[in-house]
Design brief:
- The structure is a homodimer.
- Chain A is of the alpha/beta class.
- Chain A folds into 2 domains: 149 residues, Nucleotidyltransferase, domain 5 (2-Layer Sandwich), CATH 3.30.420; 121 residues, Nucleotidyltransferase, domain 5.
- Chain A is built from 10 helices and 15 strands.
- A 6-stranded mixed beta sheet of chain A has the order 3-2-1-4-8-7, with helices on both faces. A 6-stranded mixed beta sheet of chain A has the order 6-13-12-11-14-15, with helices on both faces. A 3-stranded mixed beta sheet of chain A has the order 5-9-10, with no helix packed on it.
- In chain A, a hairpin with a 4-residue loop joins strand 2 and strand 3.
- In chain A, helix 6 runs parallel beside helix 8.
- Chain A is globular, with a radius of gyration of 21 Å.
- Chains A and B meet through strand 13, helix 4, helix 7 and helix 8 of A and strand 13, helix 4, helix 7 and helix 8 of B.
């Protein structure tokens, strides 16, 4: 048996703040080669975006002139070139055409735009997640969906018939770090291990926030007080801190949609298990979509739209 | 006209984490001398509590053997001697009798206990505020009251007929510092001046939290997004951050009492104006009680109960 190796068709790049991922994709849609590195926007802003990309293209022996489609922070103001934002409400299918081409070089290299929500009390932005959404949309089908994309800045997106009706960013991951390291709670959680979703303190904290979100910053203090007067262990203290912030995020996102709106979780890695447990504690059974696959599918959809690949 | 100088009757001390205040009080209840310093628990734990107190007693020429009543963190585990906690629900009038006497010295020096709320989902502690409450209770009268004591860890106390039914600590001040300094919001609020309650962004953030507390950590991110895409000024960004955390605290405290429960604000200094504006934005008109006076009155009530002074 022989198998014909397909020709390279395009290069897809997910270029975040602190990570770089590149896929060389064949004419049949298969991934021919892959690269991962820590040369995110922060690093590349110093060493040069063109240089970082060129080194990885060389490493996968990409033919000269192959089109490259990029999403993520490389399109931020501090990135390679500013790729702007598409304003919500926005059709996901409108994203590719709004990509911005890198000028002054022969190869067709484009960066996808982010999404901006220009509301007085709820201005919001995303960059990178719109491409995951574009990739996830195919698995979700039409109708209304609430899509959770956990992370340092968790995004919850209200999709309706392939359009982003609106979205909300919750600072969950970043707040967890800031509170764990820079407040009095640091004493309570010192020496704690990794958080497990399979922890009663975590689930109870989530459920309490879904019921009483207004008590969030009081529940945070209860981590300290519980450690002082109720023998709360470091592991349970850390779980309660995490469950409080994730539960508050879930309560907030649910407050913006009709009861019963289907929930999807787009996630990769360890956060997936934690969010699945949190959503279960809130009474939700999400469709789970792998975030790595979603971003690659989104870049593929973009390449197809732009270059008929 | 001659005026008789009253004899010193006792010494009152408010000994916090980072501050020390002492009053020499006469037999007629008047303050004969006052001392303020930065020798709070943190400093005194190194230099010696007895030594710090002795130096201030000498400075006001207090007669040897005068009784001394102390409240605050000097009674914490890391303090001079642990003064423990009275468990809620607790009558304010029971606080003085639970004071703990410093052993091994002739003078009668006592430290008032804190309050502890031993509830599984809402363990909480206070130390120092219970004495402010004891002093404020005289101005509030009987019936139900919701008492707000703003600060690094804001306390909201549910008083009912002179008893503490329960209380909640909100980490507002400490979270403000941690978020302002250690998250992406630091960019948005760099170069901001002091926060004024007379700021539309502050009042709007408070009102939004009272209405939709579940969106708290999303509203925090909107400070960053507003700065990126909506020209939010550093002053307004800082005001929105502050209004979000204070508004969330107000929403949480209100969620635990019956509508229409009278609200009292026990506060001193600049925070007073900010909280008055915040409470007004939430539709509340609190009775305002000076916190410095309240703690002195609380210590006076304690001294009277303990030593019939």
């Amino acid at each position: 048996m022989t198998e014909t190796t397909p020709q390279p068709a395009y290069v897809a790049v997910d270029w975040g703040t602190s990570s770089f991922r590149l896929w060389l994709v064949g004419t049949d849609g298969r991934v021919l080669a892959e690269r991962r590195s820590g040369e995110g926007m922060t690093t590349a802003a110093r060493t040069g975006f063109a240089e970082v990309l060129a080194s990885h293209l060389a490493a996968v022996a990409a033919p000269a002139g192959l089109p490259v489609l990029i999403c993520g922070m490389a399109g931020a103001k501090q990135g390679w070139i500013e790729a702007g934002y598409l304003d919500t409400p926005a059709a996901l299918s409108d994203i590719p055409a709004a990509a911005v081409r890198i000028p002054g070089i022969e190869a067709d290299i484009r960066i996808l735009p982010g999404l901006a929500q220009r509301e007085a009390m709820a201005p919001d932005v995303m960059r990178g997640e719109e491409t995951q959404l574009l990739g996830a949309a195919g698995e979700l089908g039409s109708g209304d969906h609430l899509v959770c994309m956990p992370g340092t800045h968790s995004k919850w997106v209200r999709l309706s018939g392939g359009r982003v009706a609106g979205f909300s960013t919750f600072m969950t991951g970043e707040l967890f770090e800031a509170v764990a390291k820079n407040t009095i709670l640091s004493h309570a959680i010192a020496d704690a291990g990794a958080i497990s979703g399979d922890n009663a303190a975590f689930r109870a904290a989530v459920a309490r926030m879904v019921e009483k979100p207004a008590l969030a910053t009081s529940q945070l203090f209860s981590v300290r007080a519980g450690s002082l007067i109720a023998g709360l262990s470091p592991d349970d203290a850390k779980a309660r801190l995490s469950g409080t912030l994730i539960g508050l995020e879930i309560a907030g996102a649910l407050s913006l949609v009709a009861d019963g709106t289907p929930v999807a979780l787009v996630v990769s890695g360890g956060l997936g298990a934690l969010y699945r447990e949190a959503l279960a504690a809130a009474g939700l059974s999400p469709t789970v979509i792998d975030a790595d696959t979603a971003v690659r599918n989104g870049l593929a959809a973009g390449a197809k739209a732009l270059w008929s690949l």
